[in-house]
Write a structure and sequence with these properties.
Structural class: mainly beta
Largest sheet: 8 strands, antiparallel, barrel
Shape: elongated
Low-confidence stretches: none
CATH topology: Lipocalin
Strand content: over 45%
Order of helices and strands: EEEEEEHEEEEE
Number of helices: 1
CATH class: Mainly Beta
Radius of gyration: 18 Å
Distance between the termini: 23 Å
Number of strands: 11
Helix content: under 10%
CATH superfamily: Lipid/polyisoprenoid-binding, YceI-like
Amino acid sequence: MTATTVETVGLSQGTWNFDAAHSEVGFSVRHAGISKVRGKFTDVDATLTLGETLSDSAVTATIQAASFDSGDANRDGHVRGADFFEVETHPTLTFSTTSVSGNEGDFELTGELTIRGISKTVTFKGEFNGVAVDPFGATRAGFEAKTVISRKEFGLTWNAALEAGGVLVSDKVTITLDVAFVKAA
């Protein structure tokens, strides 16, 4: 997917809709300096628009902040509250590309990520997993990508000091995408 057309890798131009049932938008963050807390957002909507080349393509995504799920109800409630996402005031996280580049297998997706009303440029490095037609005739494409952000840059500054030194929640958060899109009819 360099300067050649997207058709080179089996993709077709046009609109591709996010397949929430076969996708995960996840995260991990170091907890107490000794382990990682992992989770996901369960309410995501995204659109992939493929042009003739990658540079002509775009992705937009909206995530409902209240869909944050780390598997612990108390933690999830805290993260949805005023100390972190403040979902009543900032109900969504959004992403919109500013550039896409890559080759037949790897790509970089750069865009504006907005969390808690603060927008920053981030770059996801990813891999194209292929395209297939399912038994029902739908054309699907899969992608994996990841980036690391500083949560403090997005106003997520709450923390607690540990008795032995350090803090409860690390500043660095890894965002991982394992996503599928379906070609619109």
